[in-house]
Amino acid sequence: MTTLFFAVLVTLLVIFAGFKYRRRNEKEVGDAVSGNMALEIGWTVIPLIIAIVIFAWGAVLYVNYRITPKDTLDIYVIGKQWMWKLQQPNGRKEINELHLPVNQDVKLILGSEDVIHNFYVPAFRVKMDVVPGRYNTMWFRPTKTGKYHFFCSQYCGTNHAVMGGWVTVMDPAEYATWLSGEAGAVNPVSAGEKLFSQLACVTCHLANGTGRAPSLNGVYGGKVLLADGSIVVADEAYIRESILQPKAKIVAGYQPVMPTFQGLVTEEQILNLTAYIKSLQSQPVPAKGAGIALPTAGKK
Amino acid sequence: MHRTGTLYGQFKTLEQQKDTATLGMWIFLVTEVMFFGGIMLAYTINRHTYFHAFAMGSNTLSLGLGATNTLVLLASSFTMAMGVWSAQTGKKTLISIFLILTILLGFVFFGIKYVEYAQKFHHHLVPGKSFDIGYCAHNPSKCEDVDVKELKEEGERLEEAQKADPDLQAHAQLYFSAYFGMTGLHALHMVIGAGLLLWLLKDSVAGKFTAEWNNPVDIVGLYWHFVDIVWIYLFPLLYLIDRHK
Amino acid sequence: MSTHETVPEPKFPEKHYLNAEYGIRSWLLTTDHKRIAMLYLAAVTFFFFIGGFFAMMIRLHLMTPNGYLLTPDQYNRMFTMHGVTMVFFFLIPSIPAILGNFLIPIMVGAKDLAFPKINLLSWYIYIIGGLFTMWSMINGGLDTGWTFYTPLSTVYSNSAVAPAVIGVFITGFSSILTGLNFLVTVHTMRAPGMTWFRLPLFVWAHYATSLVMVLGTPVIAITLALAGMERLFGLGFFNPAMGGDPILFQHLFWFYSHPAVYIMILPAMGVISELIPTFARKQLFGYHFVAAASLAIAVIGFLVWTHHMFLTGQSTYAAVAFSFLTFVVAIPSAIKVFNWTATLFGGSISFDTPMLYAFGFLGLFLIGGLTGLFLGCLGIDMNIHDTYFVVAHFHYIMVGGAVMGYLGGLHFWWPKITGRMYPEWLARIAAFTLFIGFNFTFFPQFLLGVMGMPRRYHMYPPEFQIYNVMSTAGASILAVGYLLPMIYLTWAAFYGKVAGENPWPATGLEWKTQSPPLTENFEVTPVVTWEAYDFRNRPDLGLDVPGGSGPRIVAPAHGDD
């Protein structure tokens, strides 16, 4: 409001002066006025007072905010390039999703595995940097049920813009149910496809082979060349191991950067993911990025 | 802009030229304070947070060599000041002599610094893959240039420090980053200073400096004294952490 | 009042700084501050268009939520290189290195700056720094953001960080040497009678700017040196994996980069302080206050840097202290805006192109500055930090403020620099185009920020698309507004109407030399006996000053003539 007032005031004054004092003949000069102490003091002191008032108002709000309430639901949040791992107090983990009960003070404890990120929920008007080497906390109290976008709000590299998700605020009873188990059954392949996206597998395992991880098209059932030179068959066990202990077998030509999903996926979810990856068997294999081609007989 | 004798074309008088050049050098030295200030801030914060690692690192430095270097630089500031005095009193030959002495003392400083840096390399104290703060304490045979009693004290200090700070290696690397960063920056400035002195020497030998016109000697003197003062700060900050055992 | 006298058409001078010597060596080895200013003009304009190219790529890409034009990595490099080029290679040098270099010696009545060779050296340093940065661009560019936050820039980024860091480090010295030169020149090279309080406010503004350049730039130099060493040699001051602290980097970085924004705006304010009195033909209202305000901005500007870091988890006390200081630093700017506005009252205002830019500056700088207060207010910052609100805020100040000041100054002094006038009507059209294009580009971004769109996003949720499209549309108009002056100013330099010594007329010492000036500026050292902007006591300007210092003579009412 104050901004608008001063902006409009000065603009109007400028337009008014420009009109009233426009040059009427070529050799005209302006008046002999060059200062006025009262005005100078006036327009220094009054804006200073207004500035201090606005500062104080904002500062009080902020200082009060920084006092975290006592009984909070504590959620541990880890940001890493380029996904969020969130853990509920009972140990249940989520990726890029946060389920919360309504009308409950929630405290997020934020940590980073690599670079500086920022957890931002526009609808709640809160954000806080997530800095490697330290923990930051933020708190809020959702007052309406619904789904609210959250974003990463500190530039963190390639997929900074995709590193977000949804906060789902539910009735306390629904939250309790959610906290303890899965919702109903669905077709495993489509459930798996959904998970593949939700768990951010898709950010590295690009279908066209240009990602940090091999394309999974046509992988199931075939042979895979590993970094140590050995060859394995990509069966259900291999897929399960790759999800839970990704560093056990590294595909040739790739770096061991896949995080483990141990504790983040249930057995049912692993089955769904496996079903989905099996369904990619008939997808076109990209020329590059499906791992190093297996040596054919007679050629190097 | 044309130059008539020693007067450059944009100036009206030699007096204006002298005032201008002197003010320019002072402002430049202020920028140098801000430049060194940044790394001093990084050093201060890290020393406060990782005192044990910094104390450990500091005690691996040779007090003898560091103190000698301090005296060398103080002497060189004295010879520089004598050079300025000689210029102001019109003693042309003396100017050149004092400039040569200052340069020689500068080279002594470089020599000692070289010995210190070489020692660091041999003792695995350069930040990087082969860094090991406990190298000499654990391998006394490889560090024969260090006094046996000092090695023993170093070993004791290492044990204490490792208990107090589990990440001692990483934090000790921070100390040596500061060490090489600060002394390296200082040495670079001294090299530039030596270059300036050689340039002055060329003009001095040609007899260009008189009692009326000696401003370049004056302002290079200012620079040299500044570089000396930086060392006066560096010596206690880097060499004298927790030495009073 | 007076009958229209036939004034003879001015003649183009025979000898001047542009034809004093010919050949590429006479330009590349010049120590004439005016020629060096022209060297800077060429180099800075080159980098402006490179930065503009990156801006165009950003806006084109952001027309659709899923970003069809660039890959994420490419987009990240675009916005980073846009920032690096514009901040370090355009905004910081533009007015000081071009207009400052050209005008300050003449304005103080000297033959050249205090250290002409160092002036030339500063240009070469700028070029070398630019070449390193372009080397980074050629090698795929930089994708860390112009703010180089660690550990992303020192450990995790896969882009050409080192050459860019080296390039910016080197260019910083160009800034330091320019500032040093200006400070010393103003202290020791003023002509007889040119007291401190007779100096044009352009000079005061550059004096304040130079204080910031000289004190602040060495800090970014050491910061980038440490970051570069971390990237190349594994030093660990800013790397948490080695016990370092990424927030230390931010403190060191912003300790310079906040005052840097005052380096970018103070010279533009200096230009406005010249334009408004000239085109209102009236002394600047509150000269002493405007001069003091410039110094106050420079000093207090060093005390607010942490307002860029309110959300890093810093102590509440620190946040409160820096927020308070942020509000305080706004006051001198407000004082200036009020003084400029007051100058208009009772003036004789003409609407030549430089004045149009000055008006544009007043409105846009005001909005930009006031929105800065939103960001400095702790209660609000949490919501709009790192969103498009910030982007809009600083573009209002940098483009709406600094660039308008730069263009207004270029137009105002073009007749002095080249001896020829630019085409007035075309220039006015360009100014309007720029103003309209600018507002269409950046006003929607305030809305985007408040709605929650974070910055540095290569894709965005679809609800943000409409304002992004509006912004891109505005940007295309803005581009025309920039291209037009590039074309007609170049044309005017060769074919424009001969300007004469003082076409406006204006009161500074620079308008008492020929256009273009002689290499040594003045044939005889001037002796100054008049106050700044004193239109009523300058008979040499040929204006009608009513006898004495009474109120203005009102034009006859209709029907009386």
Question: What report would you give on this structure?
Answer:
The complex is a heterotrimer of chains A (about 300), B (about 240) and C (about 550). Chain A is of the alpha+beta class. Chain A has helices at about 1-20, 35-65, 170-180, 190-200, 200-205, 235-245, 265-280, and strands at about 75-80, 85, 95, 95-100, 105-110, 115-120, 125-130, 135-140, 145-150, 165-170, 225, 230-235. Chain A is about 30% helix and about 20% strand. In chain A, the strands form 3 sheets. In chain A, strands 3-2-1-5-8 form a 5-stranded mixed β-sheet, with no helix packed on it. By secondary structure, chain B is mostly helical. In chain B, about 75% of the residues lie in helices and about 0% in strands. The relative contact order of chain B is 0.17. Chain C is mainly α and about 550 residues long. Chain C has one domain (about 1-560): Up-down Bundle (Cytochrome C Oxidase, Chain A). In chain C, about 65% of the residues lie in helices and about 0% in strands. Chain C has helices at about 25-30, 35-60, 70-90, 95-110, 115-140, 150-155, 160-190, 200-235, 245-280, 285-300, 315-345, 355-375, 380-385, 390-420, 425-450, 465-495. At the A-C interface, helix 1, helix 2, strand 7 and strand 9 of A face helix 3, helix 6, helix 9, helix 10 and helix 11 of C.
Features:
heterotrimer; B: about 240 residues; mainly alpha; Four Helix Bundle (Hemerythrin (Met), subunit A); 8 helices; elongated; C: about 550 residues; Cytochrome C Oxidase, Chain A; 16 helices
What is the radius of gyration of chain C? Answer: 24 Å
How many individual β-strands of chain C? 0
How much helix, percentage-wise, in residues of chain A?
25-40%
Strand content of chain C: under 5%
User: How far apart are the first and last residues' alpha carbons of chain A, in Å?
Assistant: 73 Å
> What is the number of helices of chain A?
7
Total DSSP E strands of chain A:
12
Largest sheet of chain A: 5 strands, mixed
Note the gap between the termini of chain C.
12 Å
Q: Which CATH class of chain C applies here?
A: Mainly Alpha
Q: How are the strands ordered across the major sheet of chain A?
A: 3-2-1-5-8
Mean pLDDT of chain C: 92
Which architecture name of chain C does CATH use?
Up-down Bundle
Main pleated sheet of chain C:
none
Low-confidence stretches of chain C: 548-561
Could you say how many structural domains of chain C there are in total? 1
